[in-house]
Design brief:
It is built from 16 helices and 14 strands. It is an alpha/beta fold. It has two domains: 177 residues, ATPase, nucleotide binding domain (Nucleotidyltransferase, domain 5); 184 residues, Nucleotidyltransferase, domain 5, CATH 3.30.420.40. The strands form two sheets. An eight-stranded mixed beta sheet has the order 5-4-3-2-1-6-8-7, sandwiched between helices. It has a six-stranded mixed beta sheet with strand order 11-10-9-12-14-13, sandwiched between helices. Helix 6 packs across helix 15. The chain is globular, with a radius of gyration of 21 Å.
Length: 414
């Protein structure tokens, strides 16, 4: 694995991000986005230096077709340097998508079905995968499931409260997401010998979730059939009564189901409540300036996270430690402070000085004296994707990934 060149894709709705690894070592990353009407590519090297590359193509869907050229021109590919595998993070509802797969004709067909199930979450990554299959015909593309870490939860935590036979036939369950992030945290804590029996992981970013981890395995998590369920997020409302959603659909005069789904995913959460921003930094600024809606958005976000922490503590029957991770969890000392204010009943409290100090290490315990550990840990989803794929790539020196061996590696080497 140490000499294999691995390209990871993480497409967004308005940008494309890629990272090139040699084994576990990051070589470079590329970020494509619009600057006015022109697409630019920011190339970041392993030494931290950056280089802006202006591109002639006009659509983000053209990035994959130009990646080989760009990486070759920059000296990362060419000659003996060829990609051994391409990894794509996939968040898609369905039992099939709770496991990693080598992308083949069957996977493309299943992904097409996934588009219809989750038209907001799947199309971008589905299109990206299809472009990679066409542009890199000799390189295996491996779809890494964002739900796999949650796949072995007890049925009690996976089913909704309706006929379980119907749930199986319709393939409607609480699949859970952010599995790569939580898996990254768990494996890192294992490596540092700091993983407790009962752990709550708060992944707080533009998308947010809270997960209960028992003995290193997912027990319960806040996201459900899609990433909409659970915590209030940047532009997602989180938990909502379906009848309330239907009422909104009629009130807003939406004709298509996709319209209300888009509204709940793109126009609610911090953005909808504040009426101004989906960025927590801006929300905190609005609160500090006395803006009522900004203040309410902050208070609601904190309350929702606290509520889900309580639920996860109940699922675990207690808690030994808590982790804050992802963009907000790692960077916002104010969110960590306000969220933990009401967690003393769980034996959790933070040290104010530790909470605001620079955190140079990947993990820092900001707990007050006498408190259970309150960790701030930097997640690394790319590292987790490589770890998952590496179990099988190491055994296939020709770079060919076998489907059954991959499934076995994912199921048995978590």
């Amino acid at each position: 694995m140490e000499n294999k060149l691995i390209l990871i894709t993480n497409p967004g709705s308005s940008s494309r991000k890629y990272a090139l690894y040699k084994g576990q070592e990051l070589i470079c990353s590329l970020h494509f986005e619009f600057e006015g009407k022109q697409i630019i590519c920011t190339l970041k090297k392993s030494d931290g230096s950056k280089k802006v590359l202006k591109q002639e193509f006009k659509e983000l869907t053209s990035t994959v077709a130009n990646l080989n050229r760009i990486l070759t021109e920059e000296g990362y590919l060419g000659g003996m340097a060829k990609l051994d595998a391409i990894l794509a993070r996939v968040a898609c509802p369905g039992e099939y998508f709770t496991h990693d797969h080598v992308v083949d004709e069957e996977y493309i067909k299943m992904l097409e079905k996934g588009r219809k199930r989750a038209p907001l979450h799947v199309p971008v990554v589905a299109g990206e995968i299809e472009h990679f299959v066409k542009s890199f015909k000799d390189t295996p593309v491996v779809a890494i499931s964002d739900s796999s870490f949650h796949a072995d939860r007890p049925d009690l935590m996976k089913y909704y409260a309706f006929d379980t036979e119907l749930a199986d036939k319709a393939d409607v369950k609480r699949f859970g997401y952010h599995g790569l992030s939580v898996g990254s945290i768990v494996n890192y804590m294992k490596s540092q010998d700091i993983l407790p029996e009962k752990l709550i992981v708060c992944h707080l970013g533009s998308g947010s979730s809270v997960t209960a981890v028992f003995d290193g395995k997912s027990l319960d998590t806040s996201m459900g059939y899609t990433p909409l369920e659970g915590v209030m997020m940047a532009t997602r409302c989180g938990n909502i009564d379906p009848s309330a959603a239907l009422r909104l659909k009629h009130y807003l005069k939406f004709e298509a189901d996709e319209s209300i789904e888009k509204y709940l995913n793109k126009e609610t959460g911090l953005l909808g409540v504040s009426g101004q921003s989906d960025d927590m930094r801006e929300i905190l600024r609005l609160r500090d300036e006395g803006d009522k809606r900004g203040t309410f958005a902050h208070a609601m976000f904190v309350y929702k996270v606290q509520s889900l922490i309580g639920q996860m503590a109940a699922s675990l029957g207690g808690v030994d430690a808590i982790v804050f991770t992802a963009t907000i969890g790692e960077r916002s000392d104010e969110i960590r402070r306000t969220v933990t204010q009401k967690l003393s009943y769980l034996g959790l409290a933070i040290d104010e000085q530790k909470n605001v100090a620079d955190m140079e290490k990947r993990h820092t315990n900001i707990a007050a004296d006498g408190s259970k550990p309150v960790w701030v840990i930097r997640t690394d989803e790319f590292e987790e994707m490589i770890r998952r794929a590496g179990a099988i790539l190491d055994e296939n020196h020709d770079g060919v990934v076998d489907e059954e061996e991959l499934k076995d590696a994912v199921l048995n080497k978590k």
